[in-house]
């Protein structure tokens, strides 16, 4: 069912001025806002003329001053013929347009009925990564908290959650890099060329100016890997072993920061004993990185100070996720590269007013809190890897309703077949989004969501103590609502008006921003953004570290009390050539999934014509040497198969991936790589799924 884009539904439904048409000087208005096409949220100037959108440019006041290819296709997104414009409900397997009042009344009645029969925790709420660290995310938590459910789900069980938890366990805070002043930059499984162009630009600038050394750890040759002084091409899933090998070199050669270690760390002697188990020669056999390269990496990192490092999702999406992140962060501690200009630093998220006076402790534990308590303690989130058990097996209690905001969990999370099976058992599934994607067809109600150009929201930054305002630039098209409006109206109907008791947008923003003394008005006065805390250096000398010991815990007392190994360690992936040699004979190739494409944000934007011309089809990257052994030629269709399933994709022969390893991006509806992944293979501490380092085989169609 397509919805007409001709004017008529509402005043907001109108044609655009083409991107190439000049805008008359002095007759257009500029709205200072933020791009919403990915979680980076670069600053933009939105030009309007007579209330119509005209063009978008990078905002000069914003620190990024970028507009990537995704941000440049706003006209295609905004006026796309498949965009959702009116609420729909499923009737006899088909779809029927309904009013917002009808949708809200139905959803309210069903939620209250489910609450009466099963308890409030039978409701779960999911939001996509694009709304992490925003006032909208805070409102979603507030709705859940006021309703009485702890089951808010996001991407923390898949994206950066292990690194953030490792930072809290080791340093007491999330740890982020300071690339702009580093003399050595070390990247584990991180490709900002497709995920964070501002970071890529900073690294490129310093490298080209000869101001920094660059080390890249990745099985693929990324743009930054081509510039790197050292490119360590490792077997996916073995980043932890590589970090332990570097620690072995640094400690055995006495290159560590003795003063920092003596005054500010706990467990260095125990760590020194542990890393003896990882000499470079052994680590070479595990990681496929030559021993001499490991030694060079360690010496380059420690002798070019200040140095900073960053570990991306490529390093942590495996069954050794937390200990891998702990090993990598230990490199910062043993070299004293913490809270110094150009080193790594603590990062504290902006504290939006998320919770109501109902208090979290009055609720039953969130799904997964019993198995993976650190996820709840560090993120206040339910755990996606075990979420389906609440639907399929009522463990630890039934889940009967799910609200999905701006996300596509049926495609973007591992074991998609199991997720779809679970969603079909729900009594109520509501999706609020711009398009009918993989999760939408499974829903009972699909509701039209306003785009970033049509609503006002505050976003804090990933990695910086920075917050900025995304200002509404135009009226919503059709009957699209912002998430904030939907949550507010639903909360009022559920009898929770006291928690959503605002009249104007300014009142809503001021309420949610109140915890740190910033107002919406102040953000509007600084369209380029607001740094809510200044950068500090060696604040620990005054305050210590916010860990149980007050020091950097190389030996984690918290992990020890929970019964886990207190020291960083490498454990071979559950499914690998070394852990399961018999399986490797049947599935001889190492599969890594989820590398990002510059054209898309996960499964979003795949229906934009100009982006689709850039990346027209799903593919598997294969080294020519590997392809020759299999008799596979470039661009022919092949079947990629794991123990969980199979998909058909085009072969892309490239020297940019090492022999024996293949890579498939995610987000493609016609070839969903998450039909190959297994949600039962998890990190024992955090429950992270294995998305990197699986075993597969490939054959011709």
What's the mean pLDDT score? 90
Oligomerization:
single chain
The geometry reads as: globular
Rg to the nearest angstrom? 25 Å
Q: Structural class given helices, strands, pairing? A: alpha/beta
What is the element layout, followed by pairings?
Elements: E1 29-34, E2 43-49, E3 52-58, H1 74-78, E4 88-91, E5 94-97, H2 100-118, E6 123-127, H3 135-147, E7 152-153, H4 161-170, E8 174-176, E9 184-188, H5 192-195, H6 197-208, E10 213-217, H7 223-227, E11 230-232, H8 239-252, H9 258-264, E12 265-266, H10 268-275, H11 280-287, H12 291-303, E13 307-311, H13 313-316, H14 321-334, E14 345-347, H15 373-379, H16 384-392, E15 401-405, H17 409-412, H18 416-423, E16 428-433, E17 445-448, E18 457-460, E19 466-470, H19 483-493, H20 505-513, H21 520-525, E20 530-531, H22 540-543, E21 552-553, H23 557-561, H24 581-586, E22 589-593, H25 609-614, E23 619-622, H26 624-630, E24 637-641, E25 646-653, E26 661-664, E27 678-682, E28 689-690, E29 692-700
């Amino acid at each position: 069912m397509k919805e007409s884009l001709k004017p008529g539904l509402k005043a907001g439904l109108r044609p655009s001025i083409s991107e190439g048409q000049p805008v008359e000087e002095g007759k257009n208005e500029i709205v200072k806002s933020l791009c919403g096409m990915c979680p980076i949220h670069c600053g933009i100037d939105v030009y309007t003329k007579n209330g119509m959108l005209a063009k978008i440019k990078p905002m000069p006041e914003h620190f990024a001053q970028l507009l990537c290819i995704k941000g440049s296709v706003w006209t295609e997104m905004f006026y796309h013929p498949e965009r959702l414009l009116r609420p729909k409900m499923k009737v006899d397997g088909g779809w029927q347009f309904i009013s917002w009042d009808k949708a809200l009344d139905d959803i309210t009645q069903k939620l209250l009925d489910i609450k009466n029969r099963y308890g409030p925790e039978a409701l779960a709420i999911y939001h996509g990564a694009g709304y992490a660290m925003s006032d909208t995310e805070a409102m979603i938590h507030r709705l859940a908290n006021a309703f009485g459910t702890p089951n808010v789900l996001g991407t923390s069980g898949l994206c950066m959650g292990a690194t953030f938890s490792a930072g809290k366990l080791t340093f007491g805070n999330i740890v982020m890099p300071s690339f702009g002043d580093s003399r050595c930059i070390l990247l584990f499984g991180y490709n900002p060329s497709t995920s964070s162009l501002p970071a890529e630009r900073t690294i490129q600038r310093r490298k080209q100016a000869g101001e920094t050394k660059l080390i890249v750890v990745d099985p693929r040759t990324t743009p930054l890997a081509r510039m790197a002084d050292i490119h360590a091409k490792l077997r996916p899933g073995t980043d932890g072993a590589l970090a332990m090998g570097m620690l072995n070199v640094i400690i055995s050669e006495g290159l560590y920061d003795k003063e920092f270690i003596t005054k500010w760390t706990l467990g260095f002697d125990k760590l020194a004993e542990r890393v003896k188990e990882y000499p470079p020669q052994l680590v070479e056999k595990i990681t496929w990185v030559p021993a001499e390269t490991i030694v060079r990496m360690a010496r380059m990192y420690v002798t070019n100070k200040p140095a900073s490092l960053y570990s991306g999702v490529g390093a942590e999406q495996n069954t050794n996720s937390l200990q891998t992140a702990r090993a990598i962060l230990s490199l910062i501690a043993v070299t004293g590269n913490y809270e110094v200009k150009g080193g790594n630093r603590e990062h504290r998220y902006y504290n939006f007013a998320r919770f109501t006076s109902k208090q979290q402790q009055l609720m039953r534990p969130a799904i997964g809190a019993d198995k993976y308590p650190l996820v709840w303690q560090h993120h206040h989130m339910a755990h996606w890897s075990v979420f389906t058990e609440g639907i399929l097996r009522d463990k630890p209690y039934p889940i009967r309703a799910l609200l999905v905001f701006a996300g596509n969990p049926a495609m973007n999370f591992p074991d998609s077949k199991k997720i779809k099976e679970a969603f079909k058992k729900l009594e109520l599934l509501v999706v609020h989004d711009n398009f009918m994607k993989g999760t939408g067809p499974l829903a009972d109600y699909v509701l039209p969501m306003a785009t970033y150009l049509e609503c006002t929201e505050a976003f804090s930054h990933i990695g910086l103590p920075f917050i900025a305002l995304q200002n509404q630039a135009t009226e919503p098209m059709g009957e699209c609502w912002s998430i904030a409006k939907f949550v507010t109206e639903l909360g009022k109907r559920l009898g929770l008006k006291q928690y959503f008791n605002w009249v104007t947008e300014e009142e809503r923003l001021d309420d949610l921003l109140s915890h740190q003394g910033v107002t919406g008005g102040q953000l509007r006065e600084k369209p380029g953004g607001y740094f809510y805390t200044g950068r500090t250096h060696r604040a620990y000398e005054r305050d210590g570290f916010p860990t149980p010991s007050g020091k950097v815990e190389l030996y984690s007392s918290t992990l020890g009390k929970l019964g886990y190994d207190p020291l960083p360690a490498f454990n071979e992936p559950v499914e690998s050539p070394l852990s399961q040699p018999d399986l490797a004979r049947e599935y001889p190739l190492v599969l890594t999934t989820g590398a990002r494409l510059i054209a898309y944000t996960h499964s979003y934007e795949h229906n934009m014509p100009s982006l689709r011309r850039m990346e027209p089809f799903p593919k598997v990257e294969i080294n020519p040497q590997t392809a020759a052994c299999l008799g596979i030629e470039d661009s022919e269709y092949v079947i990629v198969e794991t123990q969980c399933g199979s998909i058909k994709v085009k072969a892309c022969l490239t020297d940019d991936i090492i022999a024996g390893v293949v890579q498939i991006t995610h987000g493609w509806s016609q070839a969903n790589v998450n039909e190959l992944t297994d949600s039962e293979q998890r990190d024992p501490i955090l429950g992270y799924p294995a998305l990197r380092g699986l075993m597969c085989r490939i054959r011709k169609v």
